[in-house]
Design goal:
Keywords: Amino-acid transport, Signal, Transport. With 389 residues, this protein is an alpha/beta fold. Helix content is 44%, strand content 16%.
Length: 389
C-alpha cells in the first residue's frame, strides 16, 4: 500500500479548502450583492431646478442607509440616468436601468417623462415611484399596478389653501395669474374651488408671459377691494412682477401663493417682496422627523435642506421599507409590499400625517398632509395652518 507523503497530504488539504472556498463563492447568496435602485432625473433640461434637489435628497438617503448596513445587509447602489426632461429619452433610460438590474425606479423628472417611463415599467413589471410629481392623472392614464405617486396632488394643494381661506373667512377674493398652460389650469382649479365654497371672485387678472409690469392688472385688483389675493401663476418672472406691483401700489390685503412659492429660489428672485405672503407647502420644519432630517442633512452636506430634498429622501426610504418587508428584491414581492404600505411617517407632511396606499390606491401622500406657511422677510417661516387640523 502506498502511503501519501506529508507534503502531498498538505497539498490535498489546500486543494480541498480552495475548492470549498470557490464553491462557497459561487453559491454566495444575493445578500452579498448591492441592491440597485434606478433614478431618472433631469440634469440639463427645464426640470433641472426641481429634479436636482430631489435627486440630492435620494442620494443622501442612500448614504444614510449604507452607513447603517444598507437594506437587509446589502448596500444600496443608485443608478442615475438623465432624461433631459424629454419623454422620448425617458423610456430609453428606463430600459437601460431595467437591463442594469434595477429593482426599483424613482422618477424625478417632469410629469410627461414619468408617464412615458410607465410604459416600460408596466411591460417589464418593474416597480416605479415618483416622490415629487403632483399631476392628478399620473395614476389614472395608465392602469399600471407597478407605479405609485407620493408627490402631493395638485388638487390636494389647492384644497388646503382654500381651506385656509375659509378658515380666515375670506369672502371676496381676487385671482391673479399668468397665461402659461399650467398657470391657466391652476387658475381654473382655484376658481372652481372658490366658487364651490361660496366665495365671490371680485377680480380675475392675467399678466401675459413676457410682460414688464403688472401695474394695470393690480390697479384693477385694488379697485375691486378683495379680502385676499390668490396668486395662481406658476412662472417666476410674472409672479415677481405681481408682487412688485403689489408692494409699489401699497396694497395690504393678504396674498395667498400656490405651491411654486415654496421653492427657495423664489426668495432669491423676489427678494424684499415676500414678507407676509402665505404659501402652501408639504414641509413643516418643526415636525420631529423633519428636524432630524434637517440636522443630519446639514451635517453631511453643509447646507440646510428644504422641501424638494425631502421628497427625494422620503421616496428612497419608502422604497427601502418596501424591500425590507418583501424580504429581498423579487419584483413581485416588492410590488406587493409597496402596495401594502400604511402609516409610514416621513420627513414631509403635516404633523400626524403619513404615507399609505389603502384600498388599492396608488397615490400615497396624506390628503390632510399639506401645510400653509408664511414668509418672514425673505425666509420661509412657520406653519400657520395644517390640512390635518
Amino acid at each position: 500500500m502506498k502511503i501519501a507523503s506529508p507534503r502531498s497530504g498538505r497539498m490535498a488539504g489546500f486543494a480541498l479548502r480552495a475548492a470549498l472556498a470557490a464553491a462557497a463563492l459561487a453559491m454566495a447568496p444575493a445578500m452579498a450583492q448591492p441592491i440597485k435602485i434606478g433614478i431618472i432625473t433631469d440634469k440639463v433640461g427645464p426640470a433641472k431646478p426641481y429634479a436636482e434637489p430631489v435627486t440630492a435628497g435620494a442620494v443622501f438617503a442612500a448614504k444614510e442607509l449604507n452607513a447603517k448596513g444598507g437594506i437587509l445587509g446589502r448596500q444600496v447602489e443608485l443608478l442615475i440616468e438623465d432624461d433631459q426632461a424629454r419623454p422620448d429619452i425617458s423610456a430609453t433610460a428606463a430600459r437601460k436601468l431595467v437591463e442594469a438590474g434595477a429593482t426599483f425606479i424613482l422618477s424625478l423628472s417632469l410629469t410627461p417623462s414619468t408617464q412615458q417611463v410607465q410604459t416600460v415599467t408596466l411591460e417589464t413589471k418593474t416597480p416605479q415611484l415618483t416622490p415629487s410629481n403632483s399631476g392628478d392623472t399620473l395614476t389614472t392614464q395608465i392602469d399600471n399596478p407597478y407605479f405609485w405617486q407620493t408627490g402631493p396632488l395638485g388638487s390636494t394643494q389647492i384644497a388646503t389653501l382654500l381651506a385656509y381661506a375659509a378658515n380666515r373667512n375670506f369672502k371676496r377674493v381676487a385671482l391673479v395669474g399668468e397665461n402659461s398652460d399650467l398657470g391657466q389650469l391652476t387658475n381654473r382649479s382655484f376658481k372652481a374651488g372658490l366658487e364651490k365654497s361660496g366665495a365671490q371672485i371680485v377680480a380675475e387678472e392675467v399678466v401675459p408671459r413676457g410682460s414688464t409690469t403688472a401695474d394695470p392688472q393690480m390697479q384693477k385688483v385694488r379697485a375691486a377691494k378683495p379680502d385676499a389675493i390668490f396668486l395662481t401663476g406658476v412662472t417666476t418672472p410674472e409672479n415677481v412682477l405681481i408682487l412688485r406691483s403689489y408692494r409699489q401700489l401699497g396694497l395690504k390685503m393678504p396674498v395667498l401663493g400656490n405651491f411654486n412659492l415654496s421653492v427657495p429660489q423664489t426668495a432669491v428672485v423676489a427678494k424684499g417682496l415676500l414678507d407676509g405672503v402665505v404659501f402652501v407647502d408639504a414641509f413643516d420644519p418643526a415636525k420631529p422627523e423633519a428636524r432630524r432630517f434637517i440636522e443630519a442633512y446639514k451635517k453631511e452636506n453643509g447646507v440646510e435642506p428644504y422641501n424638494l430634498n425631502g421628497y427625494g429622501y422620503d421616496g428612497l426610504m419608502l422604497v427601502a421599507d418596501a424591500i425590507k418587508r418583501a424580504g429581498g428584491t423579487d419584483k413581485e414581492k416588492v410590488r406587493a409590499a409597496m402596495q401594502a404600505t400604511q402609516g409610514y411617517v416621513g420627513v414631509l407632511g403635516a404633523v400626524g400625517s403619513s404615507y399609505g396606499f389603502s384600498g388599492g390606491k396608488r397615490t400615497g401622500f396624506d390628503r390632510n398632509g399639506m401645510v400653509v406657511r408664511v414668509y418672514e422677510g425673505d425666509k420661509q417661516g412657520k406653519v400657520v395652518f395644517s390640512g390635518a387640523q
